[in-house]
Design brief:
Oligomer: heterodimer
Radius of gyration of chain B: 19 Å
Order of helices and strands of chain A: HHHHHHHHHHHHHHHHHHHH
Structural class of chain B: alpha/beta
Mean pLDDT of chain A: 86
Distance between the termini of chain B: 32 Å
Number of strands of chain B: 10
CATH class of the largest domain in chain B: Alpha Beta
Helix content of chain A: over 70%
Strand order of the largest sheet of chain B: 6-7-8-3-9-10
Shape of chain B: globular
CATH topology of the largest domain in chain B: Rossmann fold
Number of helices of chain B: 7
Radius of gyration of chain A: 31 Å
Number of domains of chain B: 2
Number of strands of chain A: 0
Chain lengths: 530, 236
């Protein structure tokens, strides 16, 4: 048992160390400088090992304290202030409910992760010994964690609101209560599997866990907490049941089968996830489509028609939503005249938020994924698809289609905003009626161009639709930042009119610079990643 | 016409995959590229195809008149082991698009149906989406596109392995028919295929290319010589 424990610990720590090294290697600048035989460097490994152990020790002593600090203490303060709930009673209530929820939600007796898969199936370690050794370690870790947390919180009176006291007996009991809850549920888990050949991990379990979690906080809203007598009864029952549960855990023999079952579940969950990603970017193709165009226009036309559900429908939905919101605002203004006045007073204040709204409306990035996944990833295999001429003319065809898709919702916004302004009582400056639609339309064209340009210049995707280009990630991050924060910040410094002028100028400039760049560079950059 | 590969080098981080690979491939030959797992056959193909940037060395096309020029994208047809075709097009549409794009390059072009006839793709299948094609049919389509494009150099990665016996035989015939006017290089792990189809065996071992000379050996002895070459330490 002890040997099994050490082997499994070493296995886990080696995996962790290699994981950290792998992560280091992937860092943008530093990663390139690190040698490729990183995993064989003993000195570096020792350093990382020390870090891994330090991390483990920290979690040993502080994780439960953090748990107190996040999950319990703020709630005590909140409910005391809101409806005068006694923090002591609230503490016990939340603690007990969360402990039960935790035991049900995450059962550590048979943990199916990469480490256990290596240990049990690849290295052929005894499943039961492996499970028990790790479980024992987990229990000890939990015990120490809670003893430390309870000691720091109650004896040293750190973190806790004033007046919360706990008797020595309870201070001792709480960590034991956690252990017994875990043990009892683990025992139930194995018995359930033994009797039904199923794992208690379905919707019912999840529902129970959620229910317990909600029960930890919700009743406090009405000032209700578990009566002390119930808590005592529950604690006594759990402590009493923990003994036979522990005996059963040691005697049970179905560990290997459970590992197998959990590993199967994990694989099928992975497959389901992969399918979900595929479904998102791939649609049931319908044969109906025809085009009398030629060459690239023909290809693009067929593509757009056969993927209209993926490409056009979200834009149409967005158009409807925007129409709904704008109409609702217009009606609301008729009903509540105050609203018109408020809107009118600061109507141009909407401008700093416009890039953010347009960012949301835009379908650029999704479209490039759909293009890659359903067309380019297969076409790029053929050398004729790499002819610079073809790349350029297909780019233009796509740009036109993408602009058209994005213009659908944008036009509604471009027409709706000035109309809204007019209905709110109009603006003193007639220029506003021009600024609003122009900015919307320019931004729409900008976003359409931007993502397609990024796609053609950086082609970040692999066959699995994973983005492999740090440059691409950085570019999208910068775009996001500018739209969400940059424009907003600038809106506070300069007038809306100037901001709109900048938006229009930047969009125009971007398009003028980016398009020739694509013509020039895309034949070299637009290709498969290996 | 010759494909002159000289001193081709390619490393991934500090792992040298190609260490100055040199070889001259000649028109009219089918070359079998053999190498152990991880020897770098796919890397070699990707470098020739321009999918990967090489670190050093060159791959040039030497014309009959002795003039050399770097490889262009249109010189190479790279046939993947798993056939990849655009799912959203029908066979006819894919061909129509392809023929329109390459209008100026294809000698005596025919109608899409005439090409599909030549590959024995049944009339009722031509209007189906390629997504619904079987593996073998996709393979035929992929080959057809490459054959029409008719690049002087054909790279085939593990061809024929996933085809049924009839289809595999058809493909072999097609490759043999094209042999005279092209440089064909196929990578394979199947010794029988290499011996059956290829005129010359080139091995990629320790990052360099070297021919295995057949001389007067019979199949069995030749096979042993190839295996011995692949086992060699590379120092001798």
């Amino acid at each position: 048992m002890v040997e099994t424990f050490w082997i499994s610990r070493r296995l886990e720590i080696s995996c962790q160390v290699n994981g950290i090294l792998f992560w280091l290697k992937r860092l943008p600048v530093l990663g390139k400088k690190l040698p490729s035989d990183l995993y064989d460097r003993v000195g570096l490994k020792k350093l990382v090992l020390a870090l891994a152990i330090l991390k483990e020790l920290l979690s040993f002593f502080f994780s439960k304290l953090i748990y107190f600090g996040i999950c319990i203490i703020p709630a005590l303060l909140f409910f005391r202030q809101r409806n005068g709930v006694d923090p002591g009673a609230a503490f016990l209530h939340i603690f007990v409910c969360l402990t039960l929820a935790g035991a049900v939600a995450k059962n550590e007796i048979v943990e199916s992760d990469d480490n256990s898969r290596y240990a049990v199936f690849l290295l052929g370690m005894d499943a039961k010994r492996y499970a028990l050794a790790n479980y024992l370690y987990f229990l000890i870790k939990t015990l120490i964690g809670f003893v430390v947390a309870v000691f720091v919180a109650f004896e040293m009176a750190v973190l806790l609101p004033e007046g919360v006291k706990l008797s020595r007996l309870w201070a001792l009991l709480l960590p034991l209560l956690v252990l017994s809850c875990k043990l009892v549920y683990a025992g139930f888990y194995l018995v359930f599997f033994q009797k039904t050949d199923k794992l208690p991990e379905g919707a019912v379990t999840a529902f129970a866990a959620v229910l317990l979690f909600v029960a930890a906080y919700l009743p406090l809203l009405w000032g209700w907490t578990l009566p002390l007598r119930w808590v005592k009864l529950l604690a006594a029952a759990e402590l009493f049941l923990a003994v036979p549960a522990a005996v059963y855990l040691v005697r049970a023999g179905s560990y290997r089968r459970i590992y197998q079952r959990k590993s199967d579940l994990r694989i099928s969950a992975g497959a389901a996830m992969e399918k979900a990603i595929k479904d998102k970017f791939q649609e049931k193709l319908e044969l109906e489509a025809s085009s009398d165009k030629q060459g690239c226009a023909y290809l693009n036309d067929l593509f757009m028609q056969r993927h209209r559900k993926l490409l056009r429908r979200p834009a149409q939905r967005m158009t409807l939503i925007l129409t709904g919101i704008l109409s609702a605002l217009m009606i609301a203004m008729q009903v509540f005249p105050d609203l018109s006045e408020k809107l009118r007073a600061n109507f141009m204040g909407v401008l700093p938020y416009l890039p953010m709204v347009m960012y949301f409306i835009n379908r650029g990035e999704t479209t490039t994924k759909i293009l890659f996944f359903n067309c380019d990833s297969s076409m790029m295999v053929y050398s004729f698809y790499r002819s610079p001429q073809l790349i350029r003319s297909l780019f233009w065809e796509r740009l036109r289609s993408l602009i058209r898709i994005n213009l659908l919702p944008s036009t509604v916004l471009a027409l709706g905003l000035p109309l809204l302004l007019l209905l709110a009582g109009g603006s003193d400056s007639p220029l506003d009626y021009l600024i609003l639609p122009t900015s919307v339309l320019f931004l729409s064209v900008f976003f359409s161009t931007h993502y397609l340009v990024l796609y053609y210049l950086l082609q970040p995707y692999t066959q699995e639709l994973v983005s492999k280009s740090p440059a691409y990630s950085t570019a999208t991050l910068v775009t996001y930042w500018v739209c969400f924060f940059g424009a907003n910040k600038m809106g506070k410094l300069i007038s809306p009119t100037l901001l709109a002028a900048i938006c229009i100028a930047v969009s125009l400039l971007y398009v003028l610079v980016a398009l020739p760049l694509v013509s020039r560079l895309a034949p070299k950059t637009f290709r498969l990643r290996h | 016409m010759e494909l002159v590969v000289s001193e081709l080098k390619k490393s991934f981080e500090h792992q040298q995959v190609l260490r100055g690979a040199s070889f001259t491939f000649q028109k009219g030959h089918i070359y079998g590229l053999l190498g152990r797992n991880g020897a770098g056959k796919t890397t070699f193909f990707n470098c020739l195809n321009g999918d990967l940037q090489t670190d050093a060395g060159s791959a040039l096309l030497r014309k009959e008149n002795g003039v050399e020029r770097p490889l262009a994208y249109s010189d190479i047809g790279y046939v993947q082991s798993v056939p990849i075709v655009p799912d959203f097009l029908t066979a006819r549409e894919f061909l129509k698009f392809f023929l329109e794009i390459n209008r100026d390059r294809i000698r005596d072009p025919q109608s899409p149906d005439a090409y599909l006839d030549s590959m024995q793709i049944a009339a009722e299948d031509r209007g189906k989406l390629l997504r619904d094609y079987s593996h073998g049919m996709k393979n035929k389509m992929q080959m057809l596109i490459h054959f029409i494009a008719d690049p002087p150099i054909m790279l085939l990665d593990e061809p024929l392995t996933s085809l049924d016996v009839v289809m595999a035989e058809e493909m072999k015939q097609l490759l043999r028919r094209r042999r005279e006017s092209h440089i064909t290089i196929l990578s394979t792990h199947i010794m029988e295929l290499a011996l059956d189809l290829c005129d010359e065996i080139v091995i990629l071992h320790k990052g360099v290319l070297s021919p295995v000379i057949r001389e007067q050996l019979d199949d069995e002895d030749y096979k042993n010589r190839i295996i011995a070459a692949l086992k060699e330490d590379g120092n001798g």
